[in-house]
């Protein structure tokens, strides 16, 4: 059972969706398909959990985004080789 973060209903469930994300350098946005999401039957909200958001933002910061196409699946994006091992700018990990 998943509790909806918006309406607190117990009718939320995991799904996958397409999201549009601005690259860290602000040069463009990309389409990321099959992104993990939570969908609520009660309020209709579809959103990414905080962990997924952090994973996306870290990955986009740590890879060569010039090599990323306009549209990419979440899985393929997460498989891109990283330039650094981790995001050294995240203070909550220190």
Automatic annotation (TrEMBL):
Alphabetized Pfam families for the sequence: YokU
InterPro entries: CHP03829_YokU (IPR022451), Znf_MqsA-type (IPR022453)
Residues in coiled coil: none
Superkingdom to which the source organism belongs: Bacteria
NCBIfam families documented for this protein: YgiT_finger, YokU_near_AblA
Name listed for the protein in its UniProt record: YokU family protein
Organism name: Thalassorhabdus alkalitolerans
Lineage: Bacteria, Bacillati, Bacillota, Bacilli, Bacillales
